[in-house]
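During the reporting period the student researcher (J.K.) took over the structure-prediction task from the postdoctoral fellow and processed the backlog of single-chain submissions. One of the processed entries is reproduced below for the supervisory committee.
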Amino acid sequence: MRIGLLTEGGYPYARGEARLWCDRLVRGLGQHEFRLYALSRGRDQERAGWVDLPAQVTQVRTAPLWTAEVDGTWYGRRARRRFAEHYGDLAAGLCAGPAGAPGQGERSREEADRFRSALYGLAELAREQGGMVAALRSEEAVRALERVCRAPGAPRAAREARVTDLLLVGAHLEQALRPLSLDWYQEGELGSVDLCHAAAGGLAALPGLLARHFHGVPLVVTEYGVPLRAHYLGSADAPPAVRALLAAFHGRLAAEVYRSAAVLTPGNAHVRRWQERCGADRAKLRTVYPGMSAARFAEAGELAGGRAGAADARIEPGTLVWVGRIEPSKDLVTLLHAFAAVRARVPGARLRIAGSAPDAEGAAYLLHCEELAARLFPADAPVEFVDMGGPAAPDLAEVYARGAVIVLSSVVEGFPVSVVEAMFSGRATVSTDVGAVVEVVGGTGLVVPPRNPRALADACAALLGDPERRDRLGAAARARALELFTVEQNVAAFHRIYLEVAGRCPVRRIAEADAAEPRPFAVPAELRVAGAESVEVTG
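J.K. obtained the following structure tokens:
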């Protein structure tokens, strides 16, 4: 089977959790051929290079979202009229508010149809004319936005949009719609794959929407986070008009992705609820947990299961361990205040914070946490900061193995990777109730409200003072993680989904030279394997 794998800011670039997941998926499904279509997010990401790609990746096409040269395509009068009509309809859909807003009913469906028609109308125009960058940057695009924002019935935020606001919205839409100008939608490209698999929703899935529109290629969409929610949080500081219009755009794009996908695979119930709220059909949903490698944590986990002799030697009694990226959303300030209360109740307790600061904001936050630890504990130094990003960083499995209890203190979290790694290591956990934490832990650890130092301290002190309870929870956590969160279960689930989608979407037609009409199923699916001769496919 030929899979068109669609990514944005992840695979094959050398950094990011999304890169790890895609790499494990591709390597685990060596019986399929993968054609990779990747959108990059920045110059630094491209400079970091690619990971080594396995042989089953037979083609790689990349394009930047962060920059685009004017393509030199200047529209004639008729094409400009079509562009103005479609872009105006797209903008009108944004002024109608987000998809699925309460109380809209039939109007919401009509606006969704209008947005959909405008999106594909722009895609068809870009395909015919050879690109759309210049048109999206044109004065006509800004005027179209201004007309719909000033039209009767437009929401207050849109009516109050200033010219600078409209320019910001127009620039964002131009960037978001750059995939429309790519040459990925020909017969020899996405037009000849058996299905598209978008490794995220939002812009990553846009090429899959166009492959479905032009060629009927079925689309599978995986979301381990919620791009729509990330956009809402990321635009909180924007002017009200900009925030409202862009929220409407991303909401309508998400609704169209969910409507068009043959199968949606949320990574947890938290993501699933967001998808259903945005209109996803429950019949399309298949929850597939992220696949993580358990091998590197096997030694710690097996010794934790034994709890005899060497097992005791691996654990530092009274030690809490936190692992992750150091940034404000991880709320290490609350953790430090909670540890001060733990220290008063469990003499000799220690806290090890193992992580790295990914950017300037993280570095400033790390400095703030170090200063806070020095003020809270002036007499001794029970808090240790371990840099996991440098060349002298300790082995991650060893960091987990030395902890008696692993702590997560986040106020925002998607899928809690560090909690799963702790579970693989057979360690009891204390976590805040954010994102998918409760679903992941499933009764094998303690969960407390976020931003609550007292609750966090009570849970940590309770486990530090009860070794037998820690052992029971750690053993149960490891068993749960091995059942639900391994690479093997993830790969097997997607293999089943690929076969399911291919089995109930047999719409491709194979053209034969001596046949008057294309004949369905002229070439068996089994022959379409990596390295096989290409066959001519028609829509």
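The committee noted the following: DSSP finds 22 helices and 15 strands in the chain.
J.K. will present the remaining backlog at the next meeting.
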